[in-house]
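ESCALATION

Customer reports they have been waiting on this structure for their group meeting. Please prioritize. Original submission:
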Amino acid sequence: MEFNPDTAFKILKEIKDLLQGVPWWLDYGVLLGAHRDGDFTPSEHDIDIAIPSDVLKNYPLIRQKFINAGFSVHVCSFADTYALCCHKDGIEVDVNPVEIAFGFAWKSLWKTVRRTKKMFWASYPKQCFLGTDKVQLRGVDFPAPKDIEKYLTLLYGNWQVRNDDWQYENTGYLALEAIKKNYFNMVD
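Update from on-call: job pushed to the front of the queue and completed.
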């Protein structure tokens, strides 16, 4: 099913309501589109949000919130880290954990795990995730990482320049060479 930005926006507003009181923020392409363009990117294919891993460890409660709102939910786990893959009205919502440890913020790359069957963790300066900021998407405020521009630069490099030719399906989640260069492989 093709990504429908209007449906995705409706779902994002639902998520904002159902996660009231839970620390979370927009992530990856949705964050990029909201910050740069105020809307979804043309190549967007899902919704990514992040939740601190210590909060996501209570995933049964968060999972139930999504189920009560009509989502189907799949729980991914590795050791004591959890992620949720939720679906509703043809839109996939990935709920990704962020672990603050050893002076860094660590994010698991779940989609790469599904494809390669290996667990990869990306590290970022923890300052990007200590607290939240706001970003507008279609005129509505959503939570965002504290240092949005630094985080987007770490994720995408020159994120300010829009690349309408970029396609998730053609490039994969992250190129394996970029993972080898930039990320620490936790499981071999």
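Sent to customer with the following note: The radius of gyration is 15 Å.
Escalation resolved.
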